[in-house]
């Protein structure tokens, strides 16, 4: 995956994305991600790779300061159309090189984005950098299940699925290990498909 290809592939996904990734199974999973999260008034929340804004529908955003970034103009356009009369700030930005100061946000939301960006480590590092001390990162994504190897069918499918814009072979533990000195996992649970999709909440 690289940024140029992601722009192409998410231009193609944008008209149909919500029909698949914002309905049924995925919508239920998203509801479970946010049901127990209570943001406080005026908190600053960053949505990384916001896409069509599927997560935004599930939070009460009126008294939050929300910024939402994405690399794809087309995905971002879909989100902006849904939220044109709100105070949400939408920005076209590379999640691997964010244009924010250190410690800018109380919450960072990364749904289905670490498995999509070309360099998940860089993206995760940026999420940590722009998160305030005591802030939280909320991750909803697919990773290799804990203590398991990628199965042979998935190994064979992985290159094809990458062409479609996502990686099924990312191990969260490898990503986290590089940064764990400054972080604490406060929640890590299976949310869908036998632990392939997880809800992970990290505190700085
Ligand atoms: C699978 S979609 C997830 C969208 C949304 N977060 C959701 O949960 O539905 C991945 C998103 O990441 C965006 N993306 C890919 N590479 C990116 C990058 N380098 N920086 C920011 N966003 C990126 C894509 O354009 C796409 O909108």
TrEMBL record:
<dbReference type="Pfam" id="PF08241">
    <property type="entry name" value="Methyltransf_11"/>
</dbReference>
<dbReference type="InterPro" id="IPR013216">
    <property type="entry name" value="Methyltransf_11"/>
</dbReference>
<dbReference type="GO" id="GO:0032259">
    <property type="term" value="P:methylation"/>
</dbReference>
<keyword id="KW-0808">Transferase</keyword>
<feature type="domain" description="Methyltransferase type 11">
    <location>
        <begin position="48"/>
        <end position="139"/>
    </location>
</feature>
<comment type="pathway">
    <text>Phospholipid metabolism.</text>
</comment>
<keyword id="KW-0489">Methyltransferase</keyword>
<dbReference type="InterPro" id="IPR029063">
    <property type="entry name" value="SAM-dependent_MTases_sf"/>
</dbReference>
<dbReference type="GO" id="GO:0008757">
    <property type="term" value="F:S-adenosylmethionine-dependent methyltransferase activity"/>
</dbReference>
<protein>
    <submittedName>
        <fullName>SAM-dependent methyltransferase</fullName>
    </submittedName>
</protein>
<comment type="pathway">
    <text>Lipid metabolism.</text>
</comment>
């Amino acid at each position: 995956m690289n940024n140029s290809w992601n722009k192409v592939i998410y231009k193609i996904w944008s008209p149909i994305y919500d029909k698949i990734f914002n309905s049924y199974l995925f919508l239920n999973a998203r509801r479970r991600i946010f049901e127990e999260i209570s943001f406080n008034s005026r908190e600053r929340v960053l949505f990384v790779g916001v896409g069509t804004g599927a997560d935004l529908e599930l939070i009460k955003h009126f008294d939050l300061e929300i910024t939402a970034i994405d690399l794809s103009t087309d995905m971002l356009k879909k989100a902006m159309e849904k939220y044109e009369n709100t105070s949400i700030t939408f920005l076209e930005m590379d999640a691997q090189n964010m244009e924010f100061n250190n410690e800018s946000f109380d919450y960072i939301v990364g749904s289905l984005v670490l498995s999509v960006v070309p360099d998940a480590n860089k993206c995760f590092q940026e999420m940590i950098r722009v998160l305030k001390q005591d802030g939280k990162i909320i991750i909803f994504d697919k990773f290799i299940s804990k203590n398991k190897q990628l199965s042979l069918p998935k190994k064979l499918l992985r290159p094809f699925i990458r062409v479609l814009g996502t990686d099924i072979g990312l191990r969260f533990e490898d990503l986290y290990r590089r940064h764990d000195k400054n972080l604490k996992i406060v929640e890590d649970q299976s949310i869908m498909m036998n632990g392939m999709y997880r809800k992970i909440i990290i505190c700085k």
